[in-house]
């Protein structure tokens, strides 16, 4: 024991590595050397002395740092009046363009992902956009897409045989090999019952803004690119014999698009 020098040591201080024989000596050494007994998680450890325990300790330390940072970010985002004002302004701007833009509570995946902004000088939205290609099980996220860009131009880097990226073109070769007339762009209709999912077909020759007018958008648009020649389970509104041309579902199901996984994520 490095405190009393009488008894055999039984304990070693995680902080200063001094040996002690009893609780009394532990307390004495802490008092004498102002030691808190807590291991210094950031202390230098040479490669020769590095063990699996050190690795595990470092891993847990990084996890703790990540949790602390995430909790702080959530707290600031939740209580920031600036954030609330920006979201409110974004929704109001969208309303002026006849777009019903809705934002989710803090913690939802789509809320964290969304990077949509509005440029007051240009009077233009720059959308966060997700493209889904079901036939190839591929999806891509686009940021700062101007609202005056046509859907055809948005899709060119992905399915155009000449202008698309070679790697993307190879992955989406079913689409690039098909004529443009076979390509359909669909967007899920919000505010519908889970057992009555329907899609709107968008016009590729018109701008993103024109296609979003009169529609409900939760956080950001997600466009599904499908081919007429290939079977899919997406029912377009008005093309089902039992479906009227316009939806009659009530506003009470306004959060039907929130996926179950996102709800779990928010908790």
TrEMBL record:
It comes from the Eukaryota. Transmembrane segments: none annotated. Pfam families: BCD1, zf-HIT. Keywords: Isopeptide bond, Metal-binding, Phosphoprotein, Ribosome biogenesis, Ubl conjugation, Zinc, Zinc-finger. SUPFAM superfamilies: HIT/MYND zinc finger-like (SSF144232). Residues 240-267 are annotated as: Disordered. GO terms for molecular function: zinc ion binding. One of its GO terms (biological process) is maturation of LSU-rRNA from tricistronic rRNA transcript (SSU-rRNA, 5.8S rRNA, LSU-rRNA). GO terms for cellular component: nucleus; pre-snoRNP complex. Residues 242-258 have a biased composition (Low complexity). InterPro entries: BCD1, BCD1_alpha/beta, Znf_HIT. Residues 1-35 form the HIT-type domain. Interacts with FBL, SNU13, NOP58, NUFIP1, RUVBL1, RUVBL2 and TAF9. Interacts (via HIT-type zinc finger) with the RUVBL1/RUVBL2 complex in the presence of ADP. Belongs to the BCD1 family. Required for box C/D snoRNAs accumulation involved in snoRNA processing, snoRNA transport to the nucleolus and ribosome biogenesis. This is Box C/D snoRNA protein 1.
């Amino acid at each position: 024991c490095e405190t009393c020098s009488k008894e055999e040591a039984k304990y070693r201080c995680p902080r200063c590595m001094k040996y002690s024989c009893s609780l009394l000596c532990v307390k004495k050494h802490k008092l004498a050397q102002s030691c808190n007994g807590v291991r210094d998680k950031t202390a230098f450890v040479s490669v020769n002395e590095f063990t699996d325990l050190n690795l595990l300790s470092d891993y847990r330390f990084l996890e703790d740092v990540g949790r602390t940072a995430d909790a702080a970010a959530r707290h600031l985002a939740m209580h920031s009046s600036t954030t609330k004002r920006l979201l409110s302004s974004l929704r109001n701007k969208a309303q002026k363009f006849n777009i019903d833009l809705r934002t989710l509570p803090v913690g939802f995946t789509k809320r964290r992902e969304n990077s949509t902004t509005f440029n007051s000088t240009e009077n233009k939205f720059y959308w966060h956009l997700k493209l889904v290609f079901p036939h190839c099980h591929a999806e891509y996220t686009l940021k700062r897409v101007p609202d005056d860009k046509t859907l055809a131009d948005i899709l060119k880097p992905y399915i155009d045989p000449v202008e698309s990226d070679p790697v993307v073109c190879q992955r989406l070769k079913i689409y690039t090999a098909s004529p443009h007339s076979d390509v359909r762009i669909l967007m899920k209709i919000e505010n519908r019952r889970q057992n009555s999912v329907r899609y709107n077909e968008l016009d590729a020759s018109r701008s993103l803004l024109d296609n979003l007018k009169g529609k409900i958008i939760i956080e950001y648009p997600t466009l599904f690119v499908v081919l007429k020649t290939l079977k899919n389970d997406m029912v377009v509104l008005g093309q089902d014999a039992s479906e009227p041309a316009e939806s009659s579902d009530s506003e009470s199901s306004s959060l039907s698009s929130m996926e179950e996984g996102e709800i779990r994520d928010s908790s």
